[in-house]
Amino acid sequence: MKHNPVNPKKGLNYGVIGNGTSAALISHTGSMDFLCLPYFNSPSIFCRLLDDQRGGSFSIEVGPQYSINQQYIRNTNILATQFRSDEGNFNIIDFMPRFKHDGNYNCPSEVVRLIRYKGGKPRFKVHYDPRLVYSQYETYSENKGNYIKSNTHEGSYESAYLYSNFTSEDILQSREIELKNDGFFLISYNQKILEVNMDSVYLDYSQTKVYWLEWSHRTVTFEKYNDHILRSALVLKLLNFQKTGAIIAAVTTSLPVTVGEERNWDYRFCWIRDSSMIIQVLFQLRHYRVAKRFLQFIIDAIPYKDEKVQIMYGIRGEKDLTEKSLEWLKGYKDSRPVRIGNGAYHQKQNDIYGVLLDVIYRSFQYFGSDVENAEDLWTITRSLVRTVSQNWEDADMGIWEFRSQKQHFVFSKVLCWVALNRGAMIAQTLGMQEYFDKWEALADEIKKDIMDKGWNEKVGAFTQAYENKALDAANLLMAPYGFIDPMDPRYVSTVKLTEKELCRDGLMYRYKNTDDFGLPKSSFTVCTFWLIKALFQTGETKKAHRYFDQLLKESNHLGLFSEDLDFQSRELLGNFPQGYSHLALIDSAITLMDGAVAPEENMIDALENRQTTGDIFQSQEDPHV
After folding, report:
1. Is the separation of the CB atoms in 277 and 283 below 8 Å?
2. Which of 194, 203, 411, 558 is 20 to 30 A off residue 78, Cα-Cα?
């Protein structure tokens, strides 16, 4: 069956929808191939993405005469898939309801597929095939009259409900349906109490559309790259868990960074390392409430005093993220194993302390010394600085989470410097001169150690670790974190050599030396964005713009990025959509415009003084619906 989607790429031709509770992936032909309910990290309802035979999906099958196009409804996270043929036309409008009701956000654990009749006599078959709990055991679906109930009989009990104005038997038997009017499907984790009908679905759609239009309207408008920035911001918002403010790294688990290999991890967790950039970007876009809620999640997750800080937490702040393999699933394109949980949560990574203290410093910078929980933050600051003071000379697993290779990674040392530097600035902000003097002195000591041992004169660059001569893209962040002036000859030389050694056809390796799983074979997307920023800051502005414009073309047909890209095929690889990739896109775009939006002096007042441009009513036109 041949179709004509818009600009299909090899790999992850998916759109994502979500509402802050969970998310779903919809293929470019309209098949729902990944959905976990009730929450992001719950067991799956559909996971064809991880096993194209056993995983289960929800697809609308049409004949080969149909062309299929797909795009987002402008300025929203609502996805429109258009089916066109001589016999008839219809659209599938996919969304997860999200809107305000009585002052609270309504974001239920459900997905709506609104079928809009557009003329003629279109025909299709519905293939509704839920496979609950990662399809470990058989799922049974039963016609209950006004809904279909699916549930398991073995293992962990789970259930899901499908409501529709099409007959249940036509759905269950995959009978051909001739569309004459609008229709709908509503997948719910919970059995519905109130009647579900076309009127209620239209209302959910309209309220959800208005929510996203208003949210987009509150986002700062830029003269250049605005569409890319806004789409990335909408992705970031989708990854924001409503109940706690946590922001997950990606919607999926176990999408490989190299097809056929075992570099497959669960990314449905909140990484502390990402938090500094997340908060910075959210403030630049003037989404202060999201930033403040995420900041509070981070603060709540940080342990007091001597308890160990983890590199990641669950979406509710869970600390136990035990890793398990789902041996019955064959994996994305036969890339085993499929994992849930992430064993890296217990690793020692010294860089996270610097990130945390940078976040706390930003909270004082943005909100002033009257920041909420100021005394708690000061206690946490002293605890984190004490931990770094005692451990900065130790080896660790590094930013790339090597599982068996503790080394003295240069970037980890730089972030230890960041920890003491930010700690000293926090102390200065609070008038704690004694702490400022002591911590500034230790920061100078750490910096001297890095300059003596991290700079390799023979290589002419800061290397990955004290123990090796390899180059590492993470060291491109030395200037953005303020460790070194971007025009310092040593940093300029590091940037040039890193580009020469790690950049291939406009895409960046993280590093090229052997790790726990062999030699890396794909490009880590965020590293290319780091290179772009580093080139711009070191004066190579034309090259930075050229790389950036080229990289934007590597997204899928909807402007979405995953974690990695294949150097040769340009296939999107790794978990998807990747929040860090989209954060770095926004940061790079603002950098290339040579000036971010400066944070207001009093962010609390600014919460109610939203500064945007444009007119929301210009976004209301909706040709796809």
Report:
1. no
2. 194
Identify whether residues 400 and 548 lie together within a single domain.
yes
Amino acid residing at 340: I
Q: At what angle do helices 275-284 and 351-367 cross, to 10 degrees?
A: 30
Q: b or e along 511-533 (b: 16 or more beta carbons within 10 Å of the residue's beta carbon)?
A: beeebeeeebbbbbbbbbbbbbb
The SS3 assignment for 386 reads helix
Q: Which of 289, 276, 292 is nearest to 214 (CA)?
A: 289
Residue at 422: amino acid letter: R
3-state secondary structure at position 266: strand
355/449 same-domain check: yes
Cα-based distances in Å from 31 to 34, 132, 330, 533, 555:
9, 17, 20, 37, 20
Domain final residue, candidates 173, 196, 217: 217
Task: Report pTM.
Answer: 0.92
- Taking CA atoms, 341 is separated from 39, 253, 302, 318, 338, in Å, by 14, 9, 20, 11, 10
3-state SS, 85-140, equals CCCEEEEEEEECCCEEECCEEECCCEEEEEEEEEEECCEEEEEEECCHHHHCCCEE
How many distinct helices (H) and strands (E) make up the chain? 15, 28
- Which range in 227-231, 595-599, 619-623 is most confidently predicted, on average pLDDT? 227-231
| Domain span at 42 | 14-217
Task: Give the pLDDT mean for 289-317.
Answer: 84
What's the average model confidence in pLDDT over 96-125?
Answer: 95
- The verdict on 31 and 121 lying in the same domain is yes
Report whether the peptide linkage leading into residue 38 is cis, meaning its omega lies within 30 degrees of zero: yes
- Tokens 């095929």 sit on residue: 569
- Strand order from edge to edge, sheet including 564-566: 522-524, 564-566, 572-573
Domain harbouring 321, CATH code:
1.50.10.10
Complete DSSP assignment for 444-483:
HHHHHHHHHHTEETTTTEE-SBTT-----GGGGGTTTTTS
